[in-house]
C-alpha cells in the first residue's frame, strides 16, 4: 500500500514538472525499459554534458552484473535520493545541470552540468604589468577558486545566497572571520537577506540594494576584476560579493582614497607608487574643477590672470561666435561623445574613432573659428586627468561634478567654483560605507592613516591593518598599502 502511495506521489511530481516545462523544448524526457527497473530520465540538454550521459552513465547502467539500476546509480555515481524534494526543488536541480532518474517509488539525481565558461585571463578593467594575469570570469566557482587558492586559511569564510525569485542567481559573501568587524558582517548579512526581487542579472543591481545610500552619485562599494586585489581587501577586514555571471567582484567598506589606488601599486617601487598616487589625486581634482575654474578666471575674474596670459586669451578668442561658458560646454560634450563612441564601438575601430575624430574635429573647429586653442587645451587636460582614475564609477561621478562646477562658474564665477567645491566636500563628509567614513583618514583626520593612504612606505614599515575598517585583528597587516 505504501509503495503504491509513494509511486503515485513521485509520478504526480514528474507529471507536474512536465506540465510546467511543456513549452521548454530543451527539456528532454526519455523512458528506458529494462528487465528489472524501468525508469525515466529528465534533463535540460542545454545544461548538461550529453557525452558524459550517453557514453559513460547510460552504458554502465545497461551492463548486466546482477545489480539493479538504482544500486548502480547509488554505488557508481553517488546519486542523491531526491524523492522527498518539492517540485520547485526538483526544478532547481534541473536548472543546476542535474539528471533526474525517475523510478516507480524513488527519484535519484546525478550532477552532469556543463555550463559555457571561459578560462581566466587578464582583466580588461585593470592591466597587469608585474602582477598576476588571471582575472575573474563569469563562472562563480572559478572566481571562488581564484580567491581560495591565494588564501589557504580556515578563517576564509564563504556564505551562499540565492537571490531572485525567477533568476535564482547565486551570490557568495566572502570574508576572513578573525579580521572583519562583526558589526560590518552583521550589517551586510542583514541587507542580503532583505533583498526581494524577481531577477538579479548583474552585480550593480546587488550593489544598489546593499550600499548605504542607493541614490548617492559617489560609489560606496568598489569593484575589481583582479583576485589579488580582493585578497588584499579581505586581509584588511573587508568583505567581497561575488555574483554568478559577472566578471567583477565588489568589496567594502571603502573610502575615497582607496578608490584612487591601483592593484598594480603592490608590485612597484614604493617611491614611484607614492608619486603616482599624488598624481592621481591631482588628476581627480583637475578632472572635476579645471573647466569651471578656467571659465571663472577667463570670463569673470580676468584680473586674477597674469597680463601676458590675458593677452593670449583675448587674441585666441577674437571673432569667436560663442561665449566662453557655452564654448566650454560644447567642447566637453564633444569629448563625451568621442569617449562614448570609443567605448561602444569594437575596440580597434573605437580607438581609431576616438583618436582621429578628436584630432580632426579639434583642428577643424580651430581653423573654422568655432573654438579657441586654449579652450581645447583645457578640455583635453581635463579628460586626460580623468583617465588617471582607476575606478570607472568614480570617473563617471566626476563627470557629473565637472558639468555642475562649470554651471556654477557660468553664473557665479570664482565664488561659484568655491561653493561647488565646498558642497562636494561637505557631501562626501556625510557619506559612509558600512560605518567607515567616505573621507576616512581625512575627515576625521588621522595622520598615520592619511600617510598610509596617500604614500607607500617600504613594506617592512607597515605591519598593522588600516583602522578604517575596524578590523578585529589589527596586527600582521599586509598586501594593501
Biggest sheet character = 5 strands, antiparallel
| Rg, nearest Å | 30 Å
* Residue share in helix: 40-55%
Distance between the termini: 70 Å
The averaged pLDDT comes out at: 83
Instruction: Name the shape in a single word.
Output: elongated
Low-confidence stretches: none
Beta-strand share of residues:
5-15%
Alpha-beta content class: alpha+beta
Strand order of the largest sheet: 1-2-4-5-3
Count of individual helical segments:
15
**Topology, number of strands:** 12
Order of helices and strands: HEEHHEHEEHEEHHEHEEHHHHHHEEH
Number of domains: 3
Transmembrane segments: 278-300, 320-338, 372-391, 403-429
Keywords: Membrane, Transmembrane, Transmembrane helix
Subcellular location: Cell membrane; Membrane
Protein name: Spore germination protein
What does this structure look like?
- This is Spore germination protein.
- Keywords: Membrane, Transmembrane, Transmembrane helix.
- The structure is a single chain.
- The protein folds into three domains: about 1-110, no CATH class; about 140-250, no CATH class; about 265-435, no CATH class.
- It is an alpha+beta fold.
- It has helices at about 1-20, 50-60, 70-75, 85-95, 140-150, 180-195, 205-210, 225-235, 270-300, 305-315, 325-345, 345-365, 375-385, 390-430, 445-455, and strands at about 25-30, 40-45, 80, 100, 105-110, 155-165, 170-175, 220-225, 240-245, 250, 430-435, 435.
- The mean pLDDT is about 85.
- The chain starts with a helix and ends in a 27-residue tail after the last helix.
- Strands 1-2-4-5-3 form a five-stranded antiparallel beta sheet, sandwiched between helices.
- The chain is built from 15 helices and twelve strands.
- Strand 1 and strand 2 form a beta hairpin.
Amino acid at each position: 500500500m505504501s509503495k503504491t502511495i509513494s509511486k503515485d506521489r513521485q509520478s504526480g511530481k514528474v507529471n507536474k514538472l512536465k506540465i510546467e516545462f511543456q513549452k521548454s523544448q530543451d527539456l528532454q524526457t526519455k523512458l528506458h525499459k529494462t528487465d528489472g527497473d524501468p525508469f525515466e530520465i529528465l534533463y535540460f540538454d542545454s545544461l548538461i554534458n550529453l557525452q558524459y550521459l550517453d557514453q559513460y552513465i547510460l552504458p554502465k547502467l545497461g551492463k548486466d552484473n546482477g545489480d539493479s539500476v538504482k544500486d548502480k546509480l547509488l554505488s557508481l555515481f553517488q546519486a542523491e535520493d531526491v524523492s522527498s524534494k518539492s517540485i520547485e526543488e526538483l526544478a532547481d536541480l534541473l536548472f543546476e545541470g542535474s539528471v533526474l532518474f525517475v523510478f516507480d517509488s524513488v527519484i535519484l539525481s546525478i550532477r552532469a552540468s556543463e555550463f559555457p565558461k571561459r578560462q581566466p585571463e587578464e582583466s580588461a578593467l585593470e592591466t597587469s604589468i608585474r602582477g598576476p594575469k588571471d582575472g575573474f570570469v563569469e563562472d562563480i566557482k572559478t572566481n571562488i577558486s581564484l580567491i581560495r587558492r591565494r588564501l589557504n586559511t580556515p578563517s576564509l569564510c564563504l556564505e551562499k545566497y540565492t537571490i531572485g525569485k525567477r533568476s535564482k542567481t547565486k551570490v557568495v559573501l566572502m570574508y576572513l572571520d578573525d579580521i572583519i568587524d562583526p558589526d560590518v558582517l552583521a550589517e551586510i548579512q542583514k541587507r542580503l537577506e532583505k533583498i526581494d526581487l524577481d531577477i538579479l542579472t548583474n552585480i550593480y543591481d546587488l550593489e544598489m540594494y546593499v550600499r548605504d545610500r542607493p541614490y548617492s552619485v559617489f560609489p560606496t562599494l568598489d569593484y575589481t576584476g583582479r583576485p589579488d586585489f580582493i585578497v588584499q581587501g579581505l586581509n584588511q577586514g573587508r568583505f567581497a560579493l561575488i555574483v554568478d555571471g559577472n566578471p567583477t567582484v565588489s568589496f567594502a567598506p571603502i573610502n575615497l582614497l582607496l578608490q584612487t589606488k591601483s592593484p598594480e601599486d603592490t608590485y612597484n617601487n614604493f617611491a614611484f607608487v607614492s608619486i603616482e598616487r599624488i598624481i592621481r589625486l591631482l588628476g581627480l581634482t583637475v578632472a572635476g574643477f579645471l573647466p569651471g575654474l578656467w571659465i571663472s578666471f577667463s570670463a569673470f575674474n580676468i584680473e586674477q590672470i597674469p597680463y601676458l596670459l590675458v593677452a593670449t586669451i583675448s587674441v585666441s578668442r577674437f571673432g569667436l561666435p560663442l561665449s566662453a561658458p557655452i564654448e566650454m560646454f560644447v567642447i566637453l560634450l564633444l569629448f563625451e561623445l568621442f569617449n562614448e563612441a570609443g567605448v561602444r564601438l569594437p575596440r580597434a575601430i573605437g580607438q581609431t574613432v576616438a583618436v582621429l575624430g578628436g584630432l580632426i574635429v579639434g583642428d577643424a573647429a580651430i581653423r573654422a573659428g568655432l573654438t579657441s586653442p586654449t579652450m581645447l587645451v583645457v578640455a583635453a587636460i581635463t579628460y586626460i586627468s580623468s583617465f588617471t582614475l582607476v575606478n570607472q564609477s568614480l570617473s563617471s561621478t566626476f563627470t557629473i561634478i565637472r558639468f555642475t562646477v562649470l554651471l556654477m562658474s557660468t553664473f557665479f564665477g570664482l565664488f561659484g567654483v568655491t561653493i561647488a567645491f565646498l558642497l562636494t566636500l561637505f557631501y562626501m563628509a556625510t557619506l559612509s560605507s558600512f560605518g567607515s567614513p567616505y573621507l576616512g583618514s581625512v575627515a576625521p583626520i588621522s595622520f598615520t592613516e592619511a600617510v598610509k593612504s596617500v604614500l607607500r612606505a617600504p613594506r617592512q614599515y607597515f605591519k598593522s591593518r588600516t583602522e578604517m575598517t575596524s578590523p578585529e585583528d589589527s596586527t600582521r597587516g599586509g598586501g594593501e598599502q
